[in-house]
Amino acid sequence: MRLRPPRNAVDERAVAWWRSQLLVTTAVPVVVLAVLGALIGPARFWLLLAAGAIAALGLGCAAFFPAWWFRVHRWEVTDEAVYVRTGALWQEWRIAPMSRIQTVDTVRGPLEQLFRLGTVTVTTASSKGALRIAGLDHELAAELGERLTALTQATPGDAT
């Protein structure tokens, strides 16, 4: 069997979802620092400077990284395995043979629900942990969860 890059991209709405996650993550420390800067006069300059620096860094990351992640995140499910490729600078390829899959979960957090997205988590006995296919259309995620469950039930276990 020859390995090839996974063929499927995540849903285009994942870009906005990742961007929202970065902006929310950035907003929390910025708001805290801005409130502290407003309340603590002697430290106002440094607190507001830190808030501004974090805001600028967060906005820059939100503008750049989600589009890049969209270009590099790929996934595929075949009758033999689940393939996931993630990472921009350090790419990680994860392959889970059907015979090694223990559980399949579909998750939709609050922001994912807002963007009508879902995440499929495939758990194996691997020490690296579960494979996650994030940023899928919520209906596709549900269908994929059902398909993987059916495929793993039909696959005999590995005796090794």
UniProtKB/TrEMBL annotation:
Keywords: Membrane, Transmembrane, Transmembrane helix
Superkingdom, natural source: Bacteria
Chain segments annotated as transmembrane: 21-40, 46-70
InterPro entries to which the protein is assigned, alphabetical: YdbS-like_PH (IPR005182)
Domain YdbS-like PH: 71-145
Record keyword Membrane present: yes
Keyword Transmembrane tagged: yes
Listed PANTHER family: TRANSMEMBRANE PROTEIN-RELATED, UPF0699 TRANSMEMBRANE PROTEIN YDBS
Protein name, as recorded: Membrane protein
Organism: Streptomyces gardneri
